[in-house]
Design a protein that fits this description.
The chain is α+β, with helices and mostly antiparallel strands and 849 residues long. It has 26 helices and 30 strands. Helix 1 crosses helix 2, helix 15 runs antiparallel to helix 16 and helix 23 packs parallel to helix 25. The structure holds (3S)-3-amino-4-(1H-indol-3-yl)butanoic acid and zinc ion. Pfam families: DUF3458 (PF11940), DUF3458_C (PF17432), Peptidase_M1 (PF01433), Peptidase_M1_N (PF17900).
């Protein structure tokens, strides 16, 4: 496997100031003629090297003269005698057979492109690297009936009506961009249209393109787009820079969405939403992804990455910006809890396993494998720490300077940090280690009380990760406060401590009462905190801490403590009862209550132990759930009666009510009365929203009841044909804890609606099953075999999708010897399969190392 190394970076030998593309769209054979102006970059005599993949090269001209160059695999080398030239190349490509969904491919009746990271080379020969920025003009031609809508980046120009029922449109993008931001779409599309007037009076035409039948389901996305445009002006002073902004929703897509300049392409899952088909979480995800892609216009597009090692420069920063945006739209506390939950569920395990890498990796085989939670989510936490350290105004001065210095450039994470330093005068030398060191730091806290004085000792450590045996100390902002053990109030102000040394000692004087520590408030640093606390103290903090994150965290810690034993869970039951009572009395909002009373997942419980004990974790958690359900049954009924049937409103109150009602219903079904099953059935049948309907179905899915079977059958019939909803039907079954789940998944793999060609469907069934700790980790290895079978099958279709499926098997060191050996055996089988893709090979071999 060929490794690409950051240390080998060299500026491009040739630049391409302009690109003119002429594309004749055809599903079976699209012809692409490119006209590149190329200029020598620097004092050297090296030839022009172009990247290409799966291209049929028909003609090459340099300065108008045919050239006999023959591609050498995925490289085309052209000797250019002077310092500049015009290179014209004609290639043919085959979208219909492009099952990788990179480059130009078919989705339903559309032709659509995906170029990040290295898809442009599947459209034409090009120096396909992000530090080559070009001005593009694109002429798209096709059959007018088959491709009535022809879209590309920038602003729409001349339209031509041609003989034989054909037509063409030319698009010009006035902003230089790297090839990964190129996009084109052709097909039968209808649009939801709107407009936005920018802070300097530019009137921008907005359009969201989709199948005609789905236009009515785009309004939430449109509202989110306008809110994002407004927010980026107000918070960061960033204005949109074209007269048009187009979004296209497609069914087959390798990721969530893509920020192509002026022409975002979206996985339909993140555009189409109405209350019948989308849950509240889906609505939030739509708004979050629309905002994310829009924010890339400045953080990613106007200022882009020099090379793919710098991916977090745009992704970490843009995730942070979309998190800020979402927090501003609704319940900020619940958003923060959700973000931390996601980080811990995916990124912490990544940091603790064979795929651990810094947010700026320094080597890769396949860049597609590095679109990870570390680069995205931990990257966002690193930006958030800068925001905390520099303060809101300092951070804004830093971003202003970054945009001023680097607009139109392809830059590095170092350029970003340097701008932050220059704008604020802060020295971030030690902070830079977050870019280089993998792993999740631990902060261990001890406190000692002497009379009215309290000494707190904070010690940081960072364990070795693959390739990084020893680590240096990190610079992290750590918020903490004291909570009075008698008064239940915060004592003094919250403190923001900058941990830089191995140990930091804090002294608090003149304390009048016993105190408890409220630690890492707001999750100010992405670390694990180890601090001794009794169950009684944790229960107290769960009811008294004035920082919502820390309050939720206290409940999590209490739950983990109880669930690590076979103890009677009465402390947990009492704490949940107190939280429900606070909610019922209006002292806590329902959304927070719904979060706080949820037990940690089996996976997260497993992450706390040195060896994951699949059966004990499941047994203890189920026993605790049963106790919480039974003892608090009246309270769950009260919560359900109060909060169910909230209607379709999307405000924070209504969403919180639905969340709590669903949690209550799940506990009621766990308690197992006939009334509870009837209530679930009633909620399912009378649901005004998908949140209510899927909530009822999820509550029933672990049961062996006629209600479950009836709702499951109804759900399929009701939503047949709507792919995004049918995905939910697959997922809910794959996540069932019933003993027959693996068998059911095998049946579903043969279902007529299942296909390995659609990444959403694959994730919905196989991805979801691999997240079902109890059933995926069956002791006989049947779950691992199923996953490996599907991975190898999908690798022949779409290696990027296949490689992602390898991640759960890579966690073999975390499980008992028996399971570990079975997981390794499947990884060996994968790595030993002839013709396996480099994407999968990299994941499998790293996992086995
Ligand atoms: N920047 C986009 C990344 C992306 C992508 C990466 C690999 C393969 C397919 C892909 N589609 C989109 C998405 C984003 O972070 O905004
Ligand atoms: Zn992004």
């Amino acid at each position: 496997m060929n490794e690409v190394r950051l240390s080998d970076y060299r500026p491009p030998d040739w630049l391409v100031p302009t690109v003119a593309l002429d594309v004749r769209l055809d599903v079976d054979r699209t012809l692409v003629t490119s006209r590149l102006t190329v200029t020598r970059n620097g004092d050297h005599r090296r030839p022009l090297r172009l990247d290409g993949q799966d291209l049929e090269t028909r003609r090459i001209l340099v300065d108008g003269a045919p050239v006999e160059a023959v591609p050498n695999g995925e490289e085309l080398v052209l000797a250019i005698p002077g310092d500049s030239a015009v290179v014209e190349i004609e290639v043919a490509i085959a979208p219909r057979t492009n099952t990788r969904l990179m480059g130009l491919y078919g989705s339903d009746d559309l032709l659509v492109t995906q170029c990040e990271a290295e898809g442009f080379r599947r459209i034409t020969w090009f120096p396909d690297r992000p530090d080559v920025l070009s001005l593009y003009t694109v002429r798209l031609e096709g059959d007018a009936a088959q491709f009535p809508i022809l879209l590309s980046n920038g602003d729409r120009g001349a339209a031509e009506t041609l003989d034989g029922g054909r037509h063409a449109v030319t698009w010009t993008d006035p902003w230089p961009k790297p090839s990964y931001l190129f996009a084109m779409v052709g097909g039968q599309l209808a649009a939801l249209r709107d407009e936005f007037v920018t802070m300097n009076g530019r009137r921008v035409e907005l359009a969201i393109w989709t199948a005609a039948a789905d236009v009515g389901r785009c309004s939430h996305a449109m509202a989110a787009l306008k809110a994002s445009m407004d927010w980026d002006e107000r918070i960061y002073g960033r204005e949109y820079d074209l007269d048009q902004f187009n979004i296209v929703a497609v069914s087959d897509f390798n990721a969530g969405a893509m920020e192509n300049k002026g022409l975002n392409v979206f996985n339909s899952k993140y555009i189409l939403a109405d209350s019948e088909t989308a849950t509240d979480a889906d609505f939030d995800a739509v708004a979050g992804v629309v905002a994310h892609e829009y924010f890339h216009n400045w953080t990613g597009n106007r200022v882009t990455c020099r090379d793919w090692f710098q991916l977090s420069l745009k992704e970490g920063l843009t995730v942070f910006r979309d998190q800020q945006f979402s927090a501003d739209q609704g319940s900020a506390a619940v958003r923060r809890i959700d973000d931390v939950r996601a980080l811990r569920a995916v990124q912490f395990p990544e940091d603790a396993g064979p795929h651990a890498h810094p947010i700026r990796p320094d080597h890769y085989v396949e860049i597609g494998n590095f679109y990870t939670a570390t680069v995205y989510n931990k990257g966002a936490e690193v930006i958030r720490m800068l925001h905390t350290l520099l303060g809101r105004d300092g951070f804004r001065r830093g971003t202003d300077l970054y945009f001023e210095r680097h607009d139109g450039q392809a830059v590095t994470c170092e350029d970003w940090v340097a701008a932050m330093e220059a704008a604020t005068g802060r020295n971030l030398t030690q902070f830079r280690r977050w870019y280089d060191q993998a792993g999740t730091p631990t902060v261990t806290v001890h406190m000692a009380r002497a009379g009215r004085q309290l000494t707190v000792n904070l010690a940081q450590s960072l364990a070795a990760t693959p390739g990084q045996p020893s680590k240096a100390m990190m610079h992290m902002p750590f918020r903490l406060a004291l909570i009075g053990r008698d008064s239940g109030r915060r004592i003094g102000d919250e403190r923001l401590v900058e941990l830089t040394a191995g140990e930091t000692r804090l002294v608090f004087e003149d304390l009048d009462e016993p105190v408890l520590l409220s630690l890492n408030r707001g999750f100010s640093a992405p670390v694990k905190v180890v601090a001794p606390a009794s169950r009684a103290d944790l229960a107290f903090l769960a009811g008294a801490d004035d920082d919502p994150f820390a309050r939720w965290e206290a409940m999590q810690r209490l739950s983990l403590d109880v669930l690590a034993t076979d103890d009677d869970p009465h402390e947990l039951v009492d704490a949940i009862a107190a939280t429900l009572a606070d909610g019922a009395a209006g002292r806590l909002d329902p959304a927070f209550v719904g979060e706080a009373v949820l037990l940690p997942t089996e996976a997260f419980i497993g992450d706390q132990a040195s060896v994951v004990d699949v059966e004990s974790i499941h047994r203890r958690r189920e026993a605790a759930r049963a106790a919480i359900a039974a003892v608090l049954e009246p309270q769950w009924w009260q919560a359900w009666h109060w909060h169910s049937g909230t209607g379709t409103a999307l405000n924070a109150g209504a969403k919180g009510a639905r969340r709590l009602a669903n949690v209550a219903l799940a506990y009621l079904v766990t308690a197992g009365s006939a009334e509870a099953l009837a209530a679930a059935r009633q909620q399912y049948d009378g649901a005004a929203t998908m949140t209510d309907r899927i909530g009822a179905l999820s509550a029933l899915i672990n049961t062996d009841t006629p209600e479950r079977d009836a709702c499951l059958a109804d759900f399929y019939d009701r939503f047949a044909g709507n792919g995004d909803v049918i995905d939910k039907w697959f997922t809910v079954q794959a996540l069932s804890t019933r003993a027959d789940t693996l068998e059911q998944v095998q049946v579903l793999l043969r279902h007529k609606d299942f296909t390995l060609h659609n990444p959403n469907r694959l994730r919905a069934l196989v991805g979801a099953f691999a997240a079902n700790q109890r059933r995926f980790h069956a002791a006989d290895g049947s779950g691992y075999r199923l996953l490996a079978d599907q991975l190898l099958a999908v690798d022949r279709i779409n290696p990027q999708s296949a490689a992602r499926l390898a991640v759960p098997l890579g966690r073999w060191q975390r499980f008992d010897a028996g399971r570990g050996a079975l997981m390794q055996a499947q990884l060996q089988r994968i790595a030993g399969t002839a013709g396996v893709s480099k994407d999968v090979m990299e994941m499998a071999t790293r996992a086995l190392a």
